[in-house]
Design brief:
The structure holds two protein chains of two kinds. Chain A is of the alpha/beta class. Chain A has eleven helices and eleven strands. In chain A, about 35% of the residues lie in helices and about 20% in strands. In chain A, strand 9, helix 8 and strand 10 form a beta-alpha-beta unit. The longest helix of chain A is centred in the first third of the chain and has 16 residues. The termini of chain B are far apart. In chain B, strand 14, helix 12 and strand 15 form a beta-alpha-beta unit. Chain B contains 13 helices and 15 strands. Chain B is an alpha/beta fold. Classes of the chains: A alpha/beta, B alpha/beta. Chains A and B meet through strand 3, strand 4, helix 3 and helix 5 of A and helix 3, helix 5 and strand 9 of B. Strand 4 of chain A pairs parallel with strand 9 of chain B, so a sheet runs across the interface.
Chain lengths: ~270, ~350
């Protein structure tokens, strides 16, 4: 991507100063102040979802499903119709919505405890049925909202409030690779793992989310966008330290990249829609 | 038979499923469990030929949350289950009640606790009427005593759910669900109301719609609680339903619902042959409970006895209603056993002697 594609030049701001407009809050974001901790990836993930909805011009056709977890208030920030699901049940709620409103774009936004622990059954079966929805899975390896307990995705040896001596995989199980777990299911159409810790990663994650919305038009199954994120407060790190941990620990175990892609024929079909 | 009538011989479960299609259901989400699996079977057979969605979920937990999603999106939606499955749904029911989502829920009661038995029971009365899930909420609870009513209460249930934005529970049992009887379907004019609060996609002319049961600030939560309570008071004023059988000259009153009410009707006749003036009050709505009529009848009769297929649950509501004016007794069988009318008469006579 060239610089001039990213930067929209010449925005006049009050008075005589002229600035280059490099970033703008999406009009699909509300003015409500985000409650997330400084440096948390949720804010960025929300923003790129709002940007995608704005750019695709589908605000009136999107229904989001919020989880229980740190992002429980997602509906305060992204200005679309939302349903708040019980813990772990977002994909069941989304199934109910999509089945009665098949012409709408439906997505869930879920954390690791929600999607990969209490909601594993709903997750697997929703994907297996190939519901035509997008699942945005924020994986930061920890329960954030309840303040730092072990998640199904916590890394081996990771210290949390419920694995204070580090996650012992022999007694506490292994960190679950959800993308790899669900990709073989026939209902999984598009599976990718992304991050939001660098500008480049954000651009790629945004593209993945855009794919996830657009692929719903094909009615061929689930788009699953896992976003490896951070949790400065519960990892007990500064936001910058979390970037190191993301790259040197999380992404070593959860490598970024596409896990399952649509075929060329599928993409051709999409281009014709 | 008029042209507007369609008479059939059906199981209660099938009649309910057929009624739902005729009531214009948009979706049903369910999971197999005896003794109500015919519902899902009927719908997965009929719906593809007609209209709507019938989906087998991976669990009752999933089906109730699918109901939440579809109801939140404005659809006419329902689910059914039996006791153990109904227990699994309670978390979702609490969310549905809090988010004020209209939907129809059915529990074809079987014997418990635990995995219990697949035979009929009324052991889930408390769970149905006192809030099976967490928090202050109420379901409108309809108790059919025939295959006909299992069909009729589907129409009524959807209507009441929409009217009050409240989940409606039909509490049936394994006998009414499984037995075959004549059922008449009348041609009806099905009206669906607008649901401007539903998640239909945020258009420019309105604020975003949010379906939620989360009100984290105590002041807001209390306001929601107060609003719900106001609604429950309104329902209590408007929607009490009951049937009186030979209460006019009664000295003694049986109180029974559903299957027990059918048995009690026979008990009334047998007792009268013996010279005992017995009447029957059959609550049709278990919540709101017909307390006022029971309180009035308590001024005229010498004693009341409930017949329940449980250890004595509804008796508590009857006692509250009569407020100590007269003695209230209970006779019941459990574990899926259905008492004979003669057995009940015998126990009724014992109760009368104890007065």
């Amino acid at each position: 991507m060239e610089n001039n594609e990213i930067i929209t030049p010449q925005c006049i701001v009050e008075g005589e100063d002229t600035y280059d407009l490099v970033y703008e809050k999406s009009t699909v974001m509300t003015d409500t102040r985000l409650h997330y901790c400084p440096g948390c990836g949720h804010s960025t993930a929300h923003q790129i979802i709002a940007e995608v909805i704005q750019e695709l011009g589908i605000q009136k056709d999107v229904i989001g499903v919020a989880p229980v977890g740190c992002s429980v208030f997602a509906y305060d920030y992204v200005n679309i119709d939302w349903q708040e699901a019980a813990h772990g049940r977002a994909t069941a709620v989304a199934t109910g919505i999509k089945r009665v409103r098949p012409d709408k774009y439906v997505f869930t936004y879920q954390g690791d405890g929600d999607l990969a622990a209490i909601g594993t059954a709903e997750t697997i079966h929703c994907i297996n049925r190939g519901e035509n929805i997008l699942i945005v899975f924020i994986n930061n390896g920890v329960y954030g909202m309840t303040s730092g307990q072990m998640a199904p995705t916590s890394l081996e040896g990771m210290k949390t409030t419920t694995s204070p001596y580090g996650r012992d995989v022999h007694t506490m199980g292994y960190p679950m690779k959800m993308s790899e777990l669900i990709a073989p299911l026939h209902g999984a159409f598009y599976v990718t793992r992304q991050a939001v810790h660098t500008p480049n990663a954000v651009r790629k994650a945004k593209k993945a989310i855009m794919n996830g919305f657009q692929y719903q038009k094909l009615k061929k199954g689930i788009s699953f966008v896992e976003i490896i994120s951070n949790c400065p407060s519960n990892w007990k790190m500064t936001p910058l330290q979390t970037v190191d941990f993301l790259e040197n620990s999380m992404m070593q175990y959860y490598p970024l990249g596409d896990v399952k892609l649509p075929s060329k024929e599928d993409l051709k079909e999409l281009a014709n829609k | 038979m008029s042209q507007n009538e369609d008479v059939r011989l059906m199981k209660g479960n099938e009649a309910m499923a057929e009624a739902a299609i005729q009531a214009g259901m948009d979706a049903y989400f369910g999971y197999p469990i005896t003794p109500q699996s015919e519902v899902l079977e009927y719908l997965t057979r009929e719906v593809p030929k007609r209209t709507g969605i019938a989906l087998q979920a991976e669990s009752e937990v999933a089906s109730i949350n699918m109901v939440y999603g579809a109801a939140g999106a404005g659809a006419r939606v329902w689910t059914s289950s039996s006791s153990p499955g109904w227990s699994l749904m309670q978390e979702g029911v609490s969310y549905i009640a809090s988010a004020q989502l209209p939907c129809l829920l059915v529990n074809v009661n079987r014997g418990g606790p635990g995995l219990g038995t697949i035979q009929p029971s009324q052991g889930d009365y408390f769970q149905a009427t006192k809030g099976g899930g967490h928090g202050d909420y109420r379901l409108i609870v309809l108790a059919p005593n025939s295959v006909q009513e299992m069909a009729d209460f589907v129409f009524l249930g959807f209507e009441l759910a929409d009217k009050y934005r409240n989940p409606v529970l039909m509490l049936s049992d394994g006998a009414i669900g499984q037995m075959m009887e004549k059922v008449v379907f009348h041609k009806r004019d099905i009206k669906k109301i607008d649901k401007p609060w539903a998640t239909s996609g945020k258009t420019k002319d309105r604020e975003r719609n949010i379906i939620t049961s989360l009100f984290i600030k105590p002041e807001k939560m209390e306001q929601v609680n107060l609003h719900l309570n106001k609604k429950y008071e309104e329902i209590s004023r408007n929607e009490v339903r009951f049937e009186e059988i030979m209460t006019d000259d009664a000295d003694y009153l049986l109180v029974a619902y559903g299957l027990s009410a059918r048995i009690s009707h026979k008990v009334v006749l047998l007792a009268r042959e013996k010279g005992l003036k017995v009447g029957l009050l059959r609550p049709i709505t278990l919540w709101p409970f017909p307390s006022d009529i029971l309180n009035k009848l308590a001024d005229r009769v010498k004693g009341m006895m409930t017949l329940e297929l449980n250890a004595g649950q509804m008796i508590e509501d009857v006692k509250l209603a009569v407020n100590g004016k007269i003695k209230v007794g209970h006779y019941g069988r459990m574990g899926g056993i259905i008492p004979s009318p003669e057995e009940v008469v015998e126990n009724l006579e014992k109760f009368i002697k104890s007065l």
